[in-house]
Amino acid sequence: MPTKVFFMGNPLLGDDAVGSLGYKGLEEDPRLRGMQKIYCDGFDLASSVEADDEVIIVDAVQAERDIGKVSLLREEQIIQQAVLSAHDLGVAQAVRLVRTLYPQLKPIKIIGINAMVSADGKKSKKISANLDKIKEQIAKLILEET
Asked: 79-131, pLDDT tens digit by residue?
């Protein structure tokens, strides 16, 4: 069963870019060799999953505190969200669509990075200052979950 790691984020919306920044930092990481790493939006995610895949999603999670904290979220936690997304199809909607298309798929794992979404495109100081640490935490969670 192939492992696909989807990095999501809008680089124009400040901290929401953390998924795309994680991709840029981890796409060539030798520890993650053998895993397919994909930078995408929600529609691409939904159309890139196959029934036997193991799916991990990396994305910003809108938060007011603990900015930069990296957490593993359960699929159920994301599906329940009814938030608007900076993506054309948000993570919650994409996960629901994938689950509808592939009910037999193993539980989808989401690595969320607490972030403040900003319309002015600026990243928060905590994300910018801790980006290497955040990338390392993302890699560690990916390895623990596969």
From this structure: 776 554 554 677 888 888 899 999 999 999 999 999 886 667 788 888 888 88
Question: If phi over 0 gives left and psi between -120 and 50 gives alpha, with beta otherwise, what is residue 136?
Answer: alpha
Give the pTM. 0.88
Of 44, 34, 41, residue with least CA distance to 1: 34
- Gap between the Cα atoms of 1 and 50, Å rounded: 10
Q: Which amino acid is at 5?
A: V
DSSP line for 20-76:
HHHHHHHTT-GGGTTSEEEEE-HHHHHHH--TT-EEEEEEEEE-SSSTT-EEEEEHH
Tell me if 39 sits within 8 A of 87, measured CB to CB: no
Q: What distance in Å separates the CA atoms of residue 91 and residue 59, rounded to the nearest whole number?
A: 8
Q: Is 123 helix (H, G, I), strand (E, B) or coil?
A: coil
What domains lie within the chain, and their CATH numbers?
A: 3-145 (3.40.50.1450)
Give how far the C-alpha of residue 102 lies from the chain's centroid of Cα atoms, to the nearest Å.
19
Cα distance between residue 104 and residue 64, in whole Å: 35
